[in-house]
Input
Amino acid sequence: MKAPWLLATLAYFALQLGAPLITLPKGWALIGGVLLTTLLLMATLLWLVFAWARETESRKWLAPAMLAGGVAAWWAWSMLPVQLGWSRENPPPELLFGVYRALHGYLLMAAAVGLGATLSKLIRERNLLAPVIPFAAMVDMLTVLTPSGFVKQVMEKAPEVVERASVAVMAAPNAPEAVARLTPIAIIGVGDFIFLALYAACLIRFGLRVRATMIGLFVALWVYLGLVLWVLPALGIPPRLPALVPMAIVTLAINWRAFQLSRQETIASLVVTTLALGIIAWLFTREG
Output
């Protein structure tokens, strides 16, 4: 197919709109439904981001156009509930709200991919990925896990901002009824898509192991989502994990042989990683 992003788009909307209409009995049927739809949606999101990244590499104007157009369209679409008077007392029809939520996430992803692909132009050679990828992961840890981290502060003071800046995946509601629907919840932040697009664009541009990286990222993010949605809540641990960490590990591990670092580049990569880890450790010690 000449436009794989279009097929990925159709799959995204089919899952986001169709899965919540499915009602399953509590138990293994519901667990299986959650696993299957989450797996399919994660594969679709990766497919869509990499397909968009490939398009931005073949059309140099597309990345900034996606960024500008995506931000404008997302902002306008976000104003729709206010314009229509939606509220807890006046909720929209379920199907209409599903369309709103799915398109909201789609526009957010488009803007994020546009930004990530635009930023990727700053990376002129493949060896620069060696320090950039771990640094991005460390920054993600800094914002997500530290006591004064940006994500923690926003979740506590303005949780609606997290909701608006996230894309939904499937999860089973914690309802006491005998049957339940597969309900999307906000879980994947815009920053994850920005750096995923940056990685994807660089992998494509430098002829690295794109397909193998996609498969590795799918497995890693599937494990990550399992931890966030089920394992950590069951252990009573706040489900805050930086997605860029497994993404960075997988991307570097699969493509490491392609990097031919000089001694100076190796030292620079180690310094960047050590510095970022040191800052995070200092923050934990200061506020722990």
Summary: Confidence is low (pLDDT under 50) at residues 147-162. The radius of gyration is 20 Å. Residues 44 and 116 are 18 Å apart (CA to CA).
